[in-house]
Amino acid sequence: MKTLFTVILLAGTLPAQLASANWRQRLAEAMPLLGHRNWILVVDSAYPLQISPGIETIDTNASQIDVLRIVMKEIDHSIQIRPEIFTDAELPFISDSDAPGASAYREQIGQLFHDYDVGNQPHEKLLDKIDEAGKTYHVLVLKTNMTIPYTSVFIRLDCKYWTEDQEKSLRLRMRGTRGE
Length: 180
Known about the structure:
Blueprint: H1 2-30, E1 39-43, E2 55-59, H2 64-77, E3 81-88, H3 102-112, E4 118-121, H4 123-133, E5 139-143, E6 153-159, H5 164-177
Parallel strand pairs: 1-5, 2-5, 3-4
Antiparallel strand pairs: 1-6, 3-6
C-alpha cells in the first residue's frame, strides 16, 4: 500500500516538474494552433491560477525577460498572428524601494517592446478579460520566477495577414451590397 501511495504521490507532482522543463516545447506546439482572440501571458510568480476552461498555465521556472524574448520571437516568426501587448497600469508606480529591480525591469521591457505599441490597463481589468476570454478561447499562461508585482505581460493575438482597416472596409462593402 505504501508503494502505491508513493507512486500516486510522484505521479501527481510529475506534470509540474515536466512543465518547467518542457514549456518551450509546449509553446512551439501551441503556436500553429493559436490565432486571433487567443492570448499568451507571461506572468510573475504570484499570478493566480485561473480556472476558466480555456486557460492553460505552465510553470516555466525561468526569468520573465527570457520567456518574453522567446514568446516574441515565436510570434514574430509565425505566419498567422501578431501581438497586441498590454501591461499593468500599476507598473509605472512601483518604486525600487518597494520592489527592488522594478526600474530595471521597466527599462528591459521598454527595450524589448520598442517596435510595438504597448497599452496598459489596471491589473484587475486585465484579469477579467482573461477570465472571459478563457470561457471561449485558449489562453496560454507562462508563469515565471519574477518576484516584482504588476509585471505581467498580456499578449492578445490578432491576425497577421488581415488588419482592422481591411476588416472595416470589408464590412462597409458588405453593407453596401445589402442596400443598408
